[in-house]
Design a protein that fits this description.
Distance between the termini: 68 Å
Strand content: under 5%
Order of helices and strands: HHHH
Number of helices: 4
Largest sheet: none
Low-confidence stretches: none
Helix content: over 70%
Protein name: Lipid-A-disaccharide synthase N-terminal domain-containing protein
Keywords: Membrane, Transmembrane, Transmembrane helix
Structural class: mainly alpha
Shape: elongated
C-alpha cells in the first residue's frame, strides 16, 4: 500500500513535472493572492472589503489557469475558469464605470 502510494506520488509530483506544471503552480499562486489581498484589506478596514486588486488577481490567475487547463485538456477546469473570467471582467467593468461616473460629478 505504501509502495503504491509512493509510486503514485512520485509520478504525479515528479514524473509529470514540466514547464506547464510550473505555469500551473504560478497561476494557482496568483489566484491564491486574491484571497491574501482581500484578507489584508479586510483586516485593515476591520470589515469585509473586496479591493480592486482581488479582481485583477482573479483575472490574471483565471486566465493562466484557463490556459493551463486547456493544455491539460481538463473540461471541468476549462468550464470553471472560463465562466469565472466573465464574472471577473464584469466586476472590473462595473468598477471602472463607477469611477468614471464619480469623475463626472
Amino acid at each position: 500500500m505504501i509502495d503504491t502510494l509512493s509510486r503514485w506520488a512520485h509520478e504525479v509530483f515528479v514524473g509529470n513535472f514540466d514547464a506547464w506544471v510550473v505555469l500551473g503552480f504560478f497561476a494557482q499562486g496568483m489566484f491564491m493572492m486574491r484571497f491574501v489581498v482581500q484578507w489584508i484589506a479586510s483586516e485593515r478596514a476591520r470589515r469585509s472589503v473586496v479591493p480592486i486588486a482581488f479582481w485583477f488577481f482573479s483575472l490574471g490567475g483565471g486566465v493562466l489557469l484557463l490556459i493551463y487547463s486547456i493544455q491539460r485538456g481538463d473540461p471541468v477546469y476549462i468550464l470553471g475558469q472560463a465562466l469565472g473570467l466573465i464574472i471577473y471582467i464584469r466586476n472590473l467593468w462595473l468598477i471602472a464605470k463607477h469611477k468614471r461616473s464619480d469623475k463626472v460629478l
